[in-house]
Amino acid sequence: MVSDDGRPLTLADIARLAGVSRSAASRALDATAPVGGAKADRVRAVAAEYGYVPNSWAANLRRQRTGLIGVVVPRLTDTVMATLYEAIVEDASSRGYQAAVVTTGDDPRKELDRGRALVKQRVDGFILTTARTDGADPFLLELKEKSIPHALALRTDGGSPAAVIDDRAGGEMATRHLLERGHRRIAFIGGPAHASSSQGREAGFRAAMEEWGVSIGPGTIHHSDFSVDAGLEITDRLLALAEVPTAVFTANDSLALGVMSAAQRAGVSVPDQLSVVGFNDTPLAARLAVPLTSVKVDFARIAADALDLLLSPAATDRPAVQPHLVERASVASI
Amino acid sequence: MVSDDGRPLTLADIARLAGVSRSAASRALDATAPVGGAKADRVRAVAAEYGYVPNSWAANLRRQRTGLIGVVVPRLTDTVMATLYEAIVEDASSRGYQAAVVTTGDDPRKELDRGRALVKQRVDGFILTTARTDGADPFLLELKEKSIPHALALRTDGGSPAAVIDDRAGGEMATRHLLERGHRRIAFIGGPAHASSSQGREAGFRAAMEEWGVSIGPGTIHHSDFSVDAGLEITDRLLALAEVPTAVFTANDSLALGVMSAAQRAGVSVPDQLSVVGFNDTPLAARLAVPLTSVKVDFARIAADALDLLLSPAATDRPAVQPHLVERASVASI
DNA sequence: CTGAAAGCGCTTACAG
DNA sequence: CTGAAAGCGCTTACAG
What pLDDT score was predicted for residue B3? Predict the structure, then answer.
């Protein structure tokens, strides 16, 4: 594994041990186009015997790349982002890449600063979950302008390659589920207005309501920042309406959690007086006092699609990943 | 920022532009021991003007280091781990290091595999949150055996350098708080028996109970895997005891969440019939239907201490970080 | 303080 | 298929 002085073996060591030149050793060990021949076999045998691992930083220096992928997320304390990043790290690793993350706290200024720092670290490309449809995303604009490879995940800006969920289908299935259970006064709580994910889920909500010929009540559509606090606050307002909704569909599970907390604080029983459907099916959903019905998403698939888009020059946009509804106890029939 | 061909400027470019040798340019730009003189000033002016950023991978290759720190955590979907990792990334970045994370899912086999993969990537050192006091930690043993630099965070194995919380003090303050509110039948739910964090919190619990001359009831001390599910399940057992506890102190917030969910499912009111105190004060604690009283921890401090231990050759063990109690609505007086 | 030279560990035209 | 040579972008003894 290591030579006498405790340092890792180098290609030169392997070449010497196999009795070939460094060039031949390098070519024999090249994973993409391994060369044949007796000498090459000997090199591979020696490398395996000594557990030789190429110094990928040196190789990348020569190849003029870094093997590093920059990942930009709002925060890692959001379970969705943590799940996605874990999946990216794992998948990237299997493709011979490393992933480096920066968090933006939803601050475009911070995103620009920290994203640029990663550019200076010479990452080979970026995966962003921070895309906006309003164009107010300075870092993404900079990537485009400088032609730095990038792919979007979970959210799209309408232009760049993006690995996304079929948000509209998810919104439809959640809303239909509530309609089928007899609900008619259904509220929707979305995320930020510039997030395509929230837009799609809202579009699905509206489509299902229209399909069933149910009108959307006044004061029952809200937007937010995807936080528990927003769910708490908006629910207080919903419960104060003249016609209180009997159900709420939220664009993520954090909002749903806020809805349920606010309902409980107000003495409103879930699901008897208020049904709730979330989105993402985060691990906590199943473990709440009242287990949450939620739209489940395959984040490993999203991660794989985003890496494909980034790393395969020929990759075209992937079909949106299909979510599905996981029914639990937070929805009652009326 | 870039030369005509679109590639980043190199040290050679800066040297040429400043009319000095590459050696002189390199020394002028060396952050640790910047050299004086008129030429050096000129180099710095030119570098600033063109926004030159050294290729740190090339520098590290020459310096025989990578500037990469490996971070090993059970999972990133645990808010505590996500918070700590975010803090490590940020702090490491300000010291000129990158952080690469691997997750183990609490599986020593996976930890060994993925940790070794990071060793092969030639990281300069490791920060682990997976230490055990029972010695059954093959990857940590390997790091010690091969003298690979490492520091522990949140948990100690009793030997390696470790940045930890004063868990015992935290356990004492949580338990005293319950005792002061009149509780006597207090249960404790810890984490894994091999986790020093859990051991310390339990020791604090026992010390406070003894200090107040209160005996610990049968069946009221439990260990777990720190999960919500464990909190749910153990609470079911606590509620079935002949003498049901009036309060529970849990070694983390996930367990506390499980306790509260199980209580609500069983129709037991928190805090009227059951008081709960958690540990870590994760963001969710304040946003639950019944806001959770919890022991707050400064994770940024832990991250900084761990990096100090890893990177400063002269660093001695830091004093354990002092937690403090955040009182909310989950504790009632009796 | 300065420059010429060597070298970190690798890959890749080039000529055979 | 193979080897000798050049070079990725940097740092650091060495001699002045």
Answer: 44
Look-up of token digits 């190199």: B10
Residue lying closest to nucleotide C1, CA to C1': B37
User: Which DSSP state fits B212?
Assistant: T
Neighbours of A189 (CB within 10 A): 29
C-beta of residue B280 within 8 angstroms of C-beta of residue B252: yes
- Domains of chain A (ranges; CATH) run 11-54 (no CATH), 64-165+300-311 (3.40.50.2300), 167-297 (3.40.50.2300)
Task: Give the C-alpha separation, A177 to A323, whole Å.
Answer: 14
Please say if the pLDDT value at position B1 is more than 50. Answer: no
Tens of pLDDT, residue by residue over A274-324, are: 999 999 999 999 999 999 999 999 999 999 999 999 998 777 778 999 999
| Helix (H) or strand (E) segment spanning residue B163 | strand B162-163
Give the per-residue pLDDT at B6: 65
| Nucleotide nearest to B9 in CA–C1' terms | D9
Question: B18 beta carbon < 7 A from strand C?
Answer: no
Nearest CA in chain B to A76: B82
Contact between residue A323 and residue A295 where contact means Cβ atoms under 8 Å apart? yes
Residue A95 contacts B, CB cutoff 8 Å? no
Residue A183 has pLDDT above 60, yes or no: yes
Looking at beta carbons, which residues of chain B come within 8 Å of A290? Answer: 264
Cα–Cα distances in angstroms (integers) from residue A307 to residues A5, A152, A278, B221, in the given order: 39, 10, 27, 47
- B134 contacts B141 by C-beta, under 8 angstroms: no
| Phi-psi region at B122: left, alpha or beta (left = phi > 0; alpha = psi -120 to 50) | left
Give the distance between the most distant pair of CA atoms in chain A: 86
Strands of A65-128 (E only): list them: 68-73, 98-103, 125-128
pLDDT value of residue B96: 86
The nucleotide lying nearest A22 (C-alpha to C1') is D3
C-alpha closest to that of B321 among B204, B154, B149, B72: B154
Q: Can you tell me whether residue A199 is helix, strand or coil?
A: helix
ω into B34 cis (within 30 of 0): no
Residue nearest to nucleotide D13 (CA to C1'): B23
Residue in chain B lying closest to A282 (CA) = B77
Contact B281, B253 (CB under 8 A): yes
Give the nearest nucleotide to A122, CA to C1'. D9
* Contact status of B60 with chain A (Cβ, < 8 Å): yes
Q: Residue at minimal CA–C1' distance from D3?
A: A21
Token pair listed for A284: 């906590």
Model confidence pLDDT, tens digit, residues B198-221: 999 999 999 999 999 999 999 999
